[in-house]
């Protein structure tokens, strides 16, 4: 049994942990598929990573092993033979690097685990001719570095994994700012999520924690109407006893206009992955230089079309008795709302008022009896009430004044509940809570007889000016010090606060407000540095 303080774990425990990782990846497969836009939006990253991991585990299960080195070697070999797609081949190389690291270690310790992750990242990077940042590669590299750094403070295997997961979470979020395809789609990298899920699964397994029943996030419904429509074929095969080395094979594939080329393995067996307009050209090269096996050709254009059609269909989720729509901005907020069962959003907030017609249309699509709208901004409330009037009462409006307050109401949502009881509970939750806002003045102004200069931070509670300051930490402190009673204060950082600043704020709150239950989450909202609820 592996506990949080375990210094060494048995190889059988690691095998069991990989099985848990497979289980957790299975749960998240469709969610990962739904955000697969890089390098090709063909919607199979989750599937390919899962099939590769399954092949790796199957190889271990059918062959006995007598050491961790043998176990990881068989795991890597199974992944090489069964690798599927771009992400699967990269995963196989991660497992290969993990395996090579354990040739130097007889025991599974915090150090060998951290160095195994480091070896996995290095091997995967070396497998690609042009590795890209903002992918599963960079996420594992960052996670591995944190795991190695963790060795200075802890010798626990699970602590080492946990710190790598925390870093992976941050790195995954960065991916949607690093690649043009992800920036345009507004999603994180699918393969990066896959790596994070596998690390989490290993941690769950070694800690004897049952993985959640639900995936990390709901299936996304992306708009592919304007995406490029010429993706060719994903072509994969094995070459045994090849006459050429890795570089020579890559050059031959490039000469026939191959794209996304990955060649991995050794002189005994090579796994070839390439995107081609004419897949026979790649297979012909393979047959010229060795024994070709396990040919797999997938029409990426057909996969992409299927994904587009699936996205259109899935957007029309089965209507609920009582639907709910949140008007808001900020990916962090959306993630939190999804956890509460709110999966339909309309973009809107300060300076971005949604159309009444949009509320009417969406409400009719998602609900059969009634639809609740969380206005989440004082400027949206009027439009929401107008939509309610035009719907003859089908739409019910909750007059939340910020996404932070909307969350307090969303906690009471029940799609199959009694409508009036639910509305009462939502409204009571709002009236018993207070909203907190910190933003900056865009121009010199007088607010409640107080002069405010452009660029100064402004802190308000329930719309009432509390403080102004040129220092963010000082104004956070000022506004918190005015709160006399609270069971819980929940703060949400806006998109102008980077991860390092958020860490600093969180540490500051922990050190200076030990007697108050304060949480800090990523909201990702524009304009407001901090939004919050006081309960």
Mean pLDDT: 86
Main structural class: alpha+beta
**Helix content percent band:** 40-55%
Strand content: 15-25%
Q: Which radius of gyration do the C-alpha atoms yield? A: 26 Å
Task: From the structure above, extract its key features.
535 residues, alpha+beta, six-stranded mixed β-sheet, globular
What does this structure look like?
The protein contains 19 helices and 18 strands. The chain is of the alpha+beta class and 535 residues long. The longest helix has 24 residues, at 11-34. Helix 1 (11-34) runs antiparallel to helix 2 (45-62), helix 6 (136-150) packs parallel to helix 9 and helix 7 runs antiparallel to helix 9. Residues 311-316 have low confidence and may be disordered. The protein is 50% helix and 19% strand. It is globular and about 80 Å long. A 6-stranded mixed beta sheet has the order 15-14-11-18-16-17, with helices on both faces. Strands 4-5-3-6 form a 4-stranded antiparallel beta sheet, sandwiched between helices. Strands 8-7-9-10 form a 4-stranded parallel beta sheet, with helices on both faces. Helix 13 links the parallel strand 7 (320-328) and strand 8.
């Amino acid at each position: 049994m592996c506990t949080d303080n375990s210094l060494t774990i048995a190889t059988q425990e690691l095998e069991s942990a990989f099985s848990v990782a497979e289980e957790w990846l299975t749960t998240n497969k469709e969610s990962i598929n739904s955000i697969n836009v890089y390098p090709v939006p063909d919607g199979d990253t989750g599937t390919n990573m899962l099939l590769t991991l399954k092949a790796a585990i199957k190889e271990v299960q059918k062959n006995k092993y007598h050491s961790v080195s043998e176990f990881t070697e068989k795991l890597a070999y199974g992944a090489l033979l069964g690798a599927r797609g771009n992400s699967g081949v990269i995963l196989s190389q991660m497992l290969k690097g993990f395996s090579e690291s354990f040739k130097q270690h007889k025991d599974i310790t915090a150090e060998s685990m951290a160095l195994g992750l480091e070896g996995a990242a290095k091997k995967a990077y070396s497998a690609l001719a042009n590795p890209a940042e903002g992918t599963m590669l960079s996420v594992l590299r960052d996670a591995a570095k944190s795991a190695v750094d963790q060795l200075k403070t802890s010798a626990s295997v699970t602590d080492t994994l946990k710190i790598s997961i925390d870093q992976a979470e941050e790195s995954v979020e960065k991916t949607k700012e690093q690649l043009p395809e992800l920036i345009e789609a507004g999603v994180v990298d699918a393969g990066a999520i896959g790596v994070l899920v596998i690390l989490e699964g290993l941690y769950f397994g070694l800690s004897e924690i049952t993985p959640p029943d639900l995936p990390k996030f709901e299936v996304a419904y992306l708009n592919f109407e304007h995406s490029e429509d010429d993706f060719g074929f994903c072509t994969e095969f094995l070459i045994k006893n090849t006459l050429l080395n890795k570089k020579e094979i890559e050059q031959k594939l490039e000469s026939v206009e191959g794209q996304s080329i990955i060649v991995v393995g050794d002189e005994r067996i090579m796994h070839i992955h390439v995107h081609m307009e004419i897949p026979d050209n790649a297979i012909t090269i393979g047959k010229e230089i060795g024994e070709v096996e396990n040919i797999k050709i997938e029409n990426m254009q057909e996969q992409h079309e299927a994904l587009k059609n699936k996205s259109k269909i899935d957007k029309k989720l089965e209507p609920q008795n009582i639907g709910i729509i949140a008007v808001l901005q900020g990916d962090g907020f959306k993630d939190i709302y999804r956890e509460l069962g709110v999966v339909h959003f309309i973009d809107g907030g300060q300076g971005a008022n949604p159309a009444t017609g949009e509320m009417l249309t969406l409400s009719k699509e998602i609900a059969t009896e009634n639809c609740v709208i969380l206005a989440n901004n004082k400027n949206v409330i009027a439009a929401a009430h107008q939509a309610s009037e035009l719907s003859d009462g089908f739409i019910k409006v909750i007059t939340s004044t910020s996404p932070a307050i909307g969350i307090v109401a969303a906690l009471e949502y029940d799609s199959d509940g009694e409508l009036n009881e639910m509305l009462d509970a939502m409204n009571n939750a709002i009236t018993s809570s207070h909203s907190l806002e910190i933003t900056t003045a865009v121009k010199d102004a007088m607010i409640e007889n107080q002069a405010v200069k452009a660029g100064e931070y402004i802190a308000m509670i329930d719309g009432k000016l509390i403080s102004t300051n040129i220092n963010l930490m000082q104004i956070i402190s000022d506004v918190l010090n005015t709160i006399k009673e609270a069971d819980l204060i929940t703060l949400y950082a806006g998109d102008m606060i980077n991860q390092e600043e958020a860490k600093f704020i969180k540490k500051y709150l922990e050190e200076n407000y030990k007697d108050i239950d304060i949480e800090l989450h990523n909201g990702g909202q524009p304009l407001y540095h901090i939004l919050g609820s006081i309960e």
